[in-house]
Amino acid sequence: MISSLLGRLSVGHKLLLMALLPLAVAVLAGGVLVRDRLRTIDGAQQELAGLACIGEVNRTLLAAAAPDTETLSRQALVVALQLPSCARREGAAFAQALEELAREPAPSQAQLGARGQAEQAALRVEVLAQGQTLVTGLAWQSRLGASPALDEGRHVLPILVARLPELLLLAQRMDALLQAVAADMEPDGDWRHRYFMLEGQLAEQARLLEIDGQQARASAGDKVLGAALATQTQTLAGVQALGHAGRALAQAGGTPTPEALQPLLEAHRTLVVQIGQHSAQLSAPLGELLQQRIQARRTKLATELGVAVLLLLAVLGYAWAVARRVTLPLRHMAEVARAVRRNGDFGQRMEWDTRDEFGSVAQAFNLLLGKLGRHRAEQQQLGQRLGELQAQQRLVDATPLPIVVTALPAHELLHANGPGLEWIGGPRQDPWSAGLEPALRTQLQRLLAARGQVDEFEVRWLGGARPGWCVVSVRRLVYEGRDALLTVFTPVDRLKQAERGLSLWAQVFEAATEGIAVLDQARQVVSLNPALCRLSACTTDAVVGRGLEQLLAEDMGVEFIERLWRMVETQGHWQGEVRLRRRREGRPQPAWLVVSTVNDADAQAAPRRYYIASAVDISERKAQEERIRHLAHHDSLTGLPNRVLFLERLRAAVQRARQGGLQVAVLCIGLDGFKQVNDTQGRAAGDALLRLVAQRLHEAAHGGDLVCRLGGVEFAVALGGLRDGEEALRLAQQRFLPLLRRPHAVGEAMLAVPCSLGVAPCPPDEDLEKVMRRADAAMLQARAGGGDGVCLFTAEIEERAHRRALVASQLRPALEHDELTLHYQPRVAAQGGTLVGVEALLRWHSARLGAVAPAEFVPVAEESGLIGPIGAWVIDQVCRQQALWRAQGLEAVPVSINLSPLQLRDPGLPQTLREALQRHGVAPGLLELELAEGAVMDDVDATLPRLAALKALGVGLVVDDFGTGYSSVNQLHRLPIDRLKIDGSLVAALAQDPTHLAVTRAIVSLGHTLGLDVVAEGVEDEPTALALRGALCDGFQGYHYARPLPAAEVAAWMAPPPAAPAGKSAPRLKLLGHSGAA
């Protein structure tokens, strides 16, 4: 980063930076010296403050030597506030001593007494001792003894700090000792000794004071310390006077009296005053010396700083001048370089005429500009020449024809344009050897040697990425000083491809299976291919030069030809079905003709128009359409007309019959047992049977009768030439029914299939669909009557059909409007007659139709697909009723529901049952499903998984109407059922017909053997019940016990019997069938 920043600076700034670096070092060193000078001044100021503080303390000590408590108190406060922090500890002890002395009263000497004066003297000694310690500490802490500013007065400081305070302390101790003796506080033998010791110490301090004064005079001279040393003589005299007074008092003997102490006190006060004067005279010159030295050092520091700043400015100015002198030629050179770069004028020169290195650089720079100018002029000339050459080169390269220059005799490549390089396959040493076959190459060389040039020599070039045909033109020339060949290739692949295309199209035209003819602008045939000749069976000579009508059948007509050409002219093409003329066979040939317009845009003069006519043989397609048309109107299995064609022909037959005054009747035939044939013999046998039935119907029909297959196992015959419907009924009975009853030979089996026939007359103006429905209704009526018979349509049948349609239309609204209800018929035990279950029976009371029997609306529900929703409703209602009975506290019994075969085949039945049971919280064991024997046994293999799924839910399974079908023991054993219900038809004639009783016994025995319960339905009287008990039947159901009841009435059957009085049995429920009230 530093090098990057330095790189952005100009040369002058870099030179200034080089000069500023040593200056910065010098400034840093000068700063260190200035800091030392300032630190010395600070130390001198601290010494001056310490000297002032010592003087203040000395004045306080002098005041403490006199008994003035108020002054002492103020002095203690002043000292405590002015002491520096370093002397606070010694000052605190001194201030405490002063405070204690100041608290003493200050009465006169007479009022205090000797003892009070002695105690006050002792306190002053303590104050003076603390003060001396404080002065010594201040002197050392303010560094007065080591200060170089006090060299002239270094002998004065011991006098001020040590000698004078010590003299004052010793004098005070002597005074305190004498005051104590006077107060009789000291023993007589000791105080004199102590006094003489104090006197000796006082004399010693005086001697030291005199010595220090002489040394101070010798070092500082009388000029500085004259007044202070003169005061010292007085102090020494005061010391001698105090010593004489004290010695006299001590030598007098006895206890000194106050009067005897008075001279001593006067000498003491005189000495205190002299010491104070001496201290003041010494402090003043010392303070002046310190102040002078501080001022001198400040003046010296300011002088040094001024000189340093002037030197710094001088150096900076010199560096700036040198940098400017150095960068000036460089800036001039940069300006010239920018001017040359801006306008490209290499005639610019740098004017700098000096004999130093910059002058040499300027001269070399000017020489360089001159050379660059000459070089640029040469480049401009070369560029102009190069531009001319490049223009020529671009012209050659822009030529779309391949151009190649090869050297002689080795034929190495010298130059080639873009198409030429692509043509020869890139730079090659000898493109001719790879591009031409040896024979053609030799031939080309001979022509070139003979003529000197070659023009339009056609060869097949083998070199390059895409070999092809070309025309070669060759010239000799000299290229870059060498003999060479200039070769121009003209590719003719497109011409060759056009030739091959024309040849190919000619082959296609000849070999095409589609007939093609080319007509000119005059609509005359120019050519036609062999396929058209074969298609129309005509020759080329017979058609060429003639119009298109020569190819078309004569019955197409002139108007058709004119319409064809009008559409071609307006729309450019025409297509459609035509009939071609067949000259050899004479029969027209169906074909699909397409005529299109083609314009010849390459014509030299005005564009010419041609017409292309192509014809395709559609004979096979026509035959296929005929087959499709036949299948659309005929049955693919039997070949008979289907319903659509039958109705068309029936309508025509009715019109013919009306014109002749006769009638037509429709005969509808249905095979009743065909499903069994399919199940037992297979579908192939069923198809064969249907074809045989169709043949029989053809045999029975006369010439004017129409036979068709309506679908499935139903056929229809239109009987014509009838007088009335009775004749149609007679024909059906005498001609068709006997013929259809005869067995049919299907393979090795003889199959007899019962048939039901319905006859419906066809009035002239009646709707044919309605007639077909009438015939179908008559056929259904014949089947309902037992089958294998004939039924003539009557108004009664129509009324039943209308009723059936009405029931179908009202059934869905009945489900939506809650018109359906459930009744429950009890089932009782054979022994005891107790209730063991009920059967749910569906009832319908229509708002429009009134009460409708289940036998009437259940088949309609199965046909209309409503049996599923109705069955789900029944299941939900039964589960809801079970939940209601449970809520009423009634005894729970199973409820049976009848299932139709369609419901059994519904894959969603188990889910419907599961959801209903869960929704109402009903146990699966309280629900039973009853299935007809025929529905279970028709296809056991398919039914078994469905029954297993239902049984897995936990519901009960019951086979209803048992005994009327053809169940086998093996099949019955496989079924997961719980109960058999004997059909009512067997039970009804049980007492009168021993055969029915025997069958019933067999059924009961079979059921018990299989572990099943057996219940008889339709029990109408007591004899029948007795016979069934004898047959060991398990339960009964019928009018003898109860009719189907509403849910509210069934509750009485479910209620527990009332408690009987003691010793009596509870009465049983009265059987409803006995009174006949049911």
From TrEMBL:
One of its GO terms (biological process) is signal transduction. Residues 662-795 form the GGDEF domain. The keyword Transmembrane applies. This is EAL domain-containing protein. Keywords: Membrane, Transmembrane, Transmembrane helix. One of its GO terms (cellular component) is membrane. Residues 804-1058 form the EAL domain. The keyword Transmembrane helix applies. SMART domains: EAL, GGDEF, HAMP, PAS.
